[in-house]
């Protein structure tokens, strides 16, 4: 399955929307998107809208953890929003639900961000 990634940024906040499956085959593309975002933007607060993610394996979780680490090194943060039940279960089983802040939906203040890509 193809992975689609789009971003919306506004005032140092970015919402990254992911649709599809994050696995061994699609994780490198997601990693590239994070790298591009961090190189091109002064963003310090990123929320990943996971409402369209149907599956995420350990490779995908590692990409998210890597992005979190890179943002923290810049003084920023990365949060997850609206994970589907299967993804939420993976977060709980791995204990990553205590590493990431997980929202039920994308925080309202970020919904006014301008679309990019």
From TrEMBL:
CDD domains referenced in this protein's UniProt entry, alphabetically: STAS_anti-anti-sigma_factors
Single GO molecular function: anti-sigma factor antagonist activity
Superkingdom, taxonomy of origin: Bacteria
InterPro entries assigned to the protein according to its UniProt record, in alphabetical order: Anti-sigma_ant (IPR003658), STAS_dom (IPR002645), STAS_dom_sf (IPR036513)
Domain STAS: 3-113
Family: Belongs to the anti-sigma-factor antagonist family.
Protein name (Swiss-Prot/TrEMBL): Anti-sigma factor antagonist
Organism: Streptosporangium minutum
Lineage summary: Bacteria, Bacillati, Actinomycetota, Actinomycetes, Streptosporangiales
């Amino acid at each position: 399955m193809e992975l689609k990634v789009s971003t919306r940024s506004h005032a140092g906040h970015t919402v990254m929307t992911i649709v599809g499956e994050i696995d061994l085959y699609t994780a490198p593309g997601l990693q590239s998107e994070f790298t591009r975002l961090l190189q091109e933007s002064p963003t310090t607060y990123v929320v990943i809208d996971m409402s369209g993610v149907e599956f995420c394996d350990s490779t995908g979780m590692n990409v998210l953890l890597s992005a979190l680490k890179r943002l923290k090194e810049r003084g920023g943060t990365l949060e997850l929003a609206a994970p589907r039940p299967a993804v939420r279960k993976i977060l709980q089983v791995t204990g990553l639900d205590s590493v990431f802040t997980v929202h039920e939906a994308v925080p309202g203040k970020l919904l006014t961000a301008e679309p990019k890509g």
